[in-house]
Please model this.
Amino acid sequence: MKKKEICGSICACIFLGLGLFSLIGLPSIVDDAILDGVVLDPNTYDVWGANPGSTNTITVRNFTFFNITNARGFLYRN
Model:
């Protein structure tokens, strides 16, 4: 019976540790990975157009950025 209690305590600690890590540590790791991948500069320009695999196809993407200086006036008065 003592063996089951020890095993249960160890499992509970592992699951508690994984739960805390997924709440505290994982979001920052994912955010860092996303920020590293979305920066478009001369070093990462080829990565943005490359498709996975060995097809050697390049995807052309067009981006449009809008800057609304007076957002409140745009939303409420068109």
